[in-house]
Design brief:
Layout lengths: L25 H6 L2 H10 L10 H10 L1
Helix pairs in contact: 2-3
């Protein structure tokens, strides 16, 4: 029996949006732990990152 034909797009991974300045996948920020977000914010030299909530960290990282 022949294999059923599938389109090439059926095997592609969905594209993730990437923020322009950081290159971090937007969806991946949502999946990271707060500790990972703190470390990323520290690496990006975001002032006040230790006082931010998880949503604030994500927003600040996206602005970078």
């Amino acid at each position: 029996m022949a294999k059923p034909k599938t389109s090439a797009s059926a095997h592609r991974e969905p594209q993730k949006r990437s923020s322009k300045s950081t290159g971090h996948d937007v969806e991946r920020l949502e999946e990271r732990t707060q500790e990972e977000l703190y470390q990323l914010a520290k690496d990006l030299h975001i002032p006040g990152h230790m006082d931010m909530t998880r949503p604030e960290l994500i927003e600040a990282i996206r602005r970078r």
